[in-house]
Amino acid sequence: MKLLFCFKCNDIVKLPNPLLWRRCACGAVQGRYLEDGRHAEYTGDGCLLGINNGTFYEVIHHHHARRPIGREFTAFVISDHSEYVKKLQGEEKGP
User: Fold this and answer.
1) This prediction's pTM
2) CB contact set of 31 (below 8 Å; sequence gap of 6+)
3) d(Cα 67, Cα 56) in Å, to the nearest integer?
4) Cα distance between residue 76 and residue 54, in whole Å
5) How many domains does the chain have?
6) Are residues 14 and 32 in contact, defined by beta-carbon separation less than 8 angstroms?
7) What angle do CA 13, 17, 23 make, to 5 degrees?
8) Does a structural domain hold residue 94?
9) CA 45, CA 13: separation in Å to the nearest integer?
10) Rounded CA gap, 38 and 54, in Å?
11) Taking a C-beta distance cutoff of 8 angstroms, is the pair 14, 1 a contact?
12) Position 35 in a domain
């Protein structure tokens, strides 16, 4: 799962379905998944965060099972140099 983080307003938003752009609360950063649903692009003063789906869904399973112990899941900052992310510049900017 990919999330968009804005350095200006500290908003975090989940990227929507492919081809739909999502903006942070202040509008300084926006992003979207590409058609393949795996690669993403974004523009603005922010970055993309990733959540390891396997560890996240395991925690959700424990939560629904009403297990009282807090659980951790894996999250990380996705590098602009990742093959799965493209940071758009200038002419390439989104809507």
Assistant:
1) 0.82
2) 2, 4, 15, 21, 22, 40, 41, 42, 43, 48, 94
3) 15
4) 14
5) 1
6) no
7) 35
8) no
9) 14
10) 15
11) yes
12) yes
| Nearest by Cα to 16 from 5, 32, 30 | 32
- Identity of the amino acid at 16: P
Structural domain for 48, as ranges:
2-89
95 domain residue, yes or no:
no
User: Which amino acid is it at 63?
Assistant: H
2-53 pLDDT, tens digit each = 999 999 999 999 998 888 999 999 999 999 999 999 999 999 999 999 999 8
Is the sign of the CA dihedral 38, 86, 95, 27 positive or negative? positive
- Tokens standing for residue 59: 């925690």
pLDDT score at 65: 67
Cα–Cα distance measured from residue 51 to residue 73, given in angstroms and rounded to the nearest whole number: 8
d(CA 44, CA 35): 21
Cα distances (angstroms) measured from residue 46 to each of 56, 65, 66, 68, 78: 23, 35, 35, 35, 11
